[in-house]
Amino acid sequence: MSPKEPPVLSTVVPTQQGVLATPDIPTLEEYMALSNQYHFDTVGQKKARRNEDGGLTTVYSTGVEVDGMIYELPGYDRDTGKKLTEDQVRAKYLPLIQSGQLPGLPKDSPLVREYPHRNHKEVIDKHPFDRKAVIGYDFKQQNTQ
To answer: Do residues 23 and 41 lie in contact, with contact meaning Cβ atoms separated by under 8 Å?
Structure first.
């Protein structure tokens, strides 16, 4: 392990493919469930945002710290077409976090970085939301702030 990598927690099992969750750590699917559902709902509601660089935003998943835990949450408001600040995201989802409805990861867990990266490759990039699907799509054209 290089000095820049966070230590592997005892609740995480290293493998050649990365790390695996154990019973007290959420799986990739559990951790990313809210962001993934938000993405699919945004696509279904045709409320994606066209960015200045031509890219699309459907969720703008962002990690927010609450009490030493990181929660991966939607940072895009599909009704306004704007990206939310970290404080806005925290305030919006704090009741769900405090009620235990959203799984988090310890802030020093290597999964905090690995899960979102793997999720994008394994779930989001494989979604059939491709160029053909956006013909006639009414993109939000508003600024990010």
So the answer is: no
User: 1 in a domain, yes or no?
Assistant: no
Residue 83 φ then ψ, to 5°: -85, 140
How does DSSP classify residue 54?
S
Residue 14 lies in a domain: no
The domain in which residue 61 lies consists of 22-134
pLDDT bracket for residue 118 (50, 70, 90)? confident
Residue 139 is encoded by which pair of tokens?
């993109």
| Residue whose structure tokens are 């704090």 | 94
pTM: 0.72
Q: Which tens digits make up the pLDDT trace of 36-53?
A: 999 989 988 989 998 898
Question: Is 13 a member of any domain?
Answer: no
Closest CA to 105 of 72, 73, 70, 74: 70
Residue the block writes with tokens 């609740």:
11
